[in-house]
Design brief:
Helices cover 34% and strands 23% of the residues. It is α/β, with parallel strands linked by helices and 414 residues long. The chain is globular and about 70 Å long. Bound molecules: N-(iminomethyl)-L-glutamic acid and fe (iii) ion.
């Protein structure tokens, strides 16, 4: 794994093949320099136009390598215990995800293992996944709770997320996902929603452990009305909203999320015309999770082409979780977004940088190579930006910069 061997935060990157998404398209500069001052991008442009004042800074010669914004994984559930390999076999032999859930497995399998695990063990296994992600050039990462489902255990997961933030050089957004699954302590979903709104959420807010709130809106999870009760409570507390929507059926969760100015709606295989129109008239990001589609062997495609045609910002994330996306490679998710969903490689890059930043509400800080933003960058042993999504399961990261701090990679995978 990567070891931080320098914390110099003012430096100049030279001879980079720079590619960054912009709001409308891409900027591609074949021989570029980027000046970083105190962790922020101070200047970027053609190498030959680098101002004299930046030529004094310590320098990294990118030697023609591809330089992109650091990648952003805007949807993960990476703090959990146990494995669902057994259920994977069941899925392969024809069982449905919803049937496994109905018989007490699925998310509950992971909730049981996670409740039984210590904070230390959860941290250790989560850090392994985070380290995989950093090794793929990730500089910002969203992590959801949702495998605790009681105040005690949701707080435990959120504290683990806090510890990850303290121990690794990566920007972390923590999302409370208490409405992930009805836990066995409650007889009906409405009383659990009341508990979440009246007790769990206020305690999490008091402990200042969540940056946003999410829910799973589906027949096997929570209804639109139940999600709306959570949205009302979270919005009153000023917390941004996200939603697992239209993954297994069309509950019109996206329309609800848009009405509450949610940051993002995620999955969307069953999104239809009204939902697309609502998104097109909003700032809400559509997040594609192709690994969940792949693992569940879903055949219904999210309407990506129509979303893109209507100008909806489309992000791509790993969904790292033990049930539907046991993976840690955002690069592989980019490849899947192209092969399975027919996004272009440059759309996939915008989806794991600029639009992913918007899906986390951190677009002013990161997500593109722009003057004033944090110097979150990834340098690749590649010659074209399209190669990031074209290669299947191949990681050519050369160096990662987080707020200008850089790492040398000790092991090279080539
Ligand atoms: O994003 N859809 C709900 N939540 C996760 C899966 C969680 C699990 O199966 O453990 C998802 O696919
Ligand atoms: Fe998810």
């Amino acid at each position: 794994m990567a070891i931080t061997d320098s914390t110099a935060q003012s430096l100049v990157l030279r001879h980079a093949n720079l590619c960054t998404p912009t709001a409308t398209s891409h900027v591609h500069i074949h021989d570029a320099s980027v000046a970083i001052v105190e962790g922020r991008i101070a200047w970027l442009g053609e190498e030959r136009q680098l101002p004299a004042r930046y030529r004094e800074l310590p320098e990294h010669d990118c030697d023609g390598r591809l330089l992109t914004p650091g990648l952003i994984d805007c949807h993960t559930h990476l703090v959990f215990a146990g494995s669902r390999a057994q259920e994977f076999s069941q899925l392969l032999h024809g069982a449905e995800y919803a049937d496994i859930a109905a018989s007490g497995g699925g998310i509950m399998t992971t909730v049981n293992a996670t409740r039984a695990a210590s904070e230390e063990d959860l941290l250790e296994s989560a850090l392994r996944r985070v380290d995989d992600m950093l090794a793929c050039g990730v500089t910002s990462l969203e992590i959801k709770s949702g495998y605790g489902l009681t105040l005690e255990h949701e707080l435990k997961l959120l504290r683990v997320i806090q510890q990850i933030r303290a121990q690794r050089p990566v920007r972390i957004r923590a999302t409370l996902l208490a409405l992930h699954k009805l836990p066995p302590e409650f007889e009906d979903a409405d009383s659990y929603v009341t508990y979440v709104c009246d007790e769990l959420l206020p305690a999490v807010i008091k402990a200042d452990l969540a940056d946003a709130v999410d829910a799973f809106c589906d027949q096997i999870a929570f209804s639109r009305d139940q999600v709306e009760r959570l949205f009302v409570a979270a919005r009153a507390a000023g917390l941004p909203l996200k939603l697992h929507a239209e993954q297994l059926s069309n509950q019109r969760g996206s329309e609800l999320a848009v009405a509450y100015q949610a940051l993002s709606v995620d999955h969307l295989e069953y999104l239809e015309a009204d939902g697309i129109a609502a998104l097109a008239a909003s700032d809400t990001v559509a997040v594609m999770l192709p690994c969940a589609f792949y693992t569940l062997r879903e055949t219904r495609l999210p309407p990506v082409t129509r979303l893109l045609a209507q100008g909806v910002p489309v992000a791509v994330a790993s969904d790292c979780n033990p049930g539907t996306a046991p993976m840690t490679s955002l690069l592989l998710a980019m490849n899947m977004a192209c092969t399975l969903f027919r996004m272009t490689p440059l759309q996939a890059l915008a989806g794991t940088t600029l639009h992913a930043a918007q899906a986390l509400g951190i677009g002013a800080e990161t997500g593109s190579i722009e003057v004033g933003k944090s110097a979150d960058l990834a340098c690749w042993d590649l010659s074209r930006p399209e190669e990031l999504a074209y290669l299947v399961g191949v990681n050519r990261l050369h160096r990662r910069y987080y707020a200008g701090q850089h790492e040398h990679l000790l092991h090279k995978q080539h």
